[in-house]
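Run log, item B.
One chain of 143 residues. Sequence copied directly from the ordering sheet:
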Amino acid sequence: MAYVSQEMKKELAPGIKAVLNKYGVKGSIAVRNHMTLVVNIKSGDVDFARGKNDAGFNRGMTASDDGFYDQVNTSHISKFYNDTAAAFLTELVDAMKQPTVRGDWYNNTDIMTDYFDIAYYIDINVGQWDKGYIYNGEEAIAA
């Protein structure tokens, strides 16, 4: 059964914060419903914008303050992000899956038999629906 506690969050926090600091990103760590470890990325030097899709629409969503926000699919990071964003997100996911007092992170889920067995779920949000991600990179400063 998926379970993550505040103690486990405290154990994982130094590794997660090290990745955030390495890439110059500010964010927060939370536990949702005792089964999901969440990292909310607020601002930083990493450009998460994924450009436009084939139909000309922006990938990601627009927050109510007209900023950018996105909910990262942690299983397909390399498919949706490239360069620095993909490297950052991959390292962040690895830091979120480090061993804790409860043991190693695992995923024995078998969707074909409707069997879900995972240590805990992980979510990464770039910005929020009401307050978008603030990009502090060179392009944002020049504008």
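Observations after the first pass:
- The mean pLDDT is 87.
- DSSP finds four helices and six strands in the chain.
Flagged for discussion on Thursday.
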